[in-house]
Structures are given as C-alpha cells and as structure tokens.
Amino acid sequence: MDARSPRGAAKSGFAVPQVPKIALYLVGLIPAAWLFYHGINDNLGADPMRYLEQSLGLWALRFLVATLAVTPLRQILNVNLLRYRRALGLLCFYYAVLHLTTYLVLDQGLDFAAIWADIVKRPYITIGMATFIILIPLAATSNNAAIRRLGGQVWAKIHRLVYVAAIGAVLHFLLVVKSWPPEPLVYTAIVLALLGYRLIRSLYRKIAPQPRSPRRAA
Ligand code: HEM
C-alpha cells in the first residue's frame, strides 16, 4: 500500500509531472465530499443509503486497483508513479472505512446482533469484513517509521497481503450482485490481470538465469 517500497526507489522511469501528494489526497477525497454533499441534500436517488454505500465501496475498489497498477505501469510502460502509491493505498483504506461506517451506521443502525447475523449468514459480508481486516495492517504500516521499524523484508511481506485484499474485494463485489452485470466482471478481470502479471514475472525471474553483476564477473 506504500510508495516507499525499499526496492521502489531504484528506477526513475518516464518523467511524470510531479504533483504534491497532498493534491492527490484532496482530489481523491472529492468523490466522498460529492457523495456526502448530495446525501445531505437528499439528492442520491430513490435509495440514498444504498447509493452511498455502493459508491463508497466502488471507490475503495478503484483505489485498490490503482495501487496495484503502479508497479506494472512502471515495469511495462516505464511510467513511474511510485511516489503516489502510498496515497492511493491510503485512499482505498479511507473509502473502505467510509463504506464500512455507512454499512454499520446507516444500513444496520448499529444493531450489533443484526451485524453479527449478517457476517455469519451472508458470504459477501463475511468476505467484505475479512478484506477490511486485511487492509488495516497495510494502512497502519504505510508510513516511513513502520518501514524503518519492521525492516524492508518484513514490511514487503506484510504488504503482499494487498494481493489477498484485492481478491477479497472483487469476490465481495461478485457476491453482492445477484445477476451478472459487466462492472464486477470487468474489475475482476483487471485484478486478475494485475496479479497474473506479477505471478508470471516472479515465475520467470525464478527460472530465467540472472545476469551476473559486473563485480562478480570480474
Ligand atoms: C468492511 C466490511 C465491508 C462490509 C460490511 C461491506 C458491505 C457492503 C454492502 C452492504 C454493500 C451493498 C450491497 C447491496 O447493494 O445490497 C457493499 C457493496 C460493495 N462493496 Fe463492500 N463491504 C465491506 C468491505 C468492502 C471493501 C474492503 C471493499 C473494497 C475494497 C468493498 C467494495 C464493495 C463494492 C465494489 C461494492 C459494490 C458496489 C456496487 O454495487 O456498485 N467492500 N459492501
């Protein structure tokens, strides 16, 4: 979930205009502000709570996908957005928190017995909760102090959980929809492509002979 992958700084890549990270946070939070503004003004259609809940979930998934796209974009197209990856990951988490809060407060009215029954009975709620729990350590360690404290290798291992979260998020989306509209299938295909790319690349790196470093060769 973080831009400061210890291996990340190595390649500079295509010169993307440098935008302050705070600008990305501000732009990223515009959909939430828009939704709450229209929600307060009773402008979110016939079922405003459902619209709010679904939209916030969708934005969480979009930012998760954007976070996962940073590495392939750099490796395939040489577009380097690494410095924005932490912000994208945290935006995913913020939207997931808002999505969960909408569910707990507006959908379920903080009725914890009903919430527990939902978690136990509805697989999409179970998977949504599990996905959210996975996002917590990722968000909590998306800072420089955590990278220093944990060390690069442990930090990188923890952050591999983002792949599990991505699978959980699309599975959750697929189970929410009762029929088969294209949107969840498109997100599932994108997530599978982004994870498949990483898998193929890591398998290839394992079997392909590594070039010798000049020092060793000497
Ligand atoms: C924290 C636990 C979660 C709960 C309790 C939860 C609950 C829900 C609920 C009740 C809905 C609406 C179902 C309906 O329309 O009837 C929903 C939809 C959705 N959620 Fe979650 N969710 C959780 C976590 C997540 C996470 C972590 C993500 C993504 C990272 C996510 C993404 C989505 C998406 C994409 C939708 C469908 C939006 C649409 O229909 O357009 N959810 N979720």
From TrEMBL:
Question: Record's superkingdom?
Answer: Bacteria
Q: Where in the cell is it found?
A: Cell membrane; Membrane
What membrane topology is annotated for this entry? Multi-pass membrane protein
Q: Name one Pfam family in it.
A: Ferric_reduct
Q: Which residue range or ranges hold the Ferric oxidoreductase domain?
A: 56-169
* PANTHER family for the chain: PROTEIN-METHIONINE-SULFOXIDE REDUCTASE HEME-BINDING SUBUNIT MSRQ (PTHR36964:SF1)
Supply the name of the protein: Protein-methionine-sulfoxide reductase heme-binding subunit MsrQ
Give the source lineage, highest ranks first: Bacteria, Pseudomonadati, Pseudomonadota, Alphaproteobacteria, Hyphomicrobiales
Gene name as annotated: msrQ
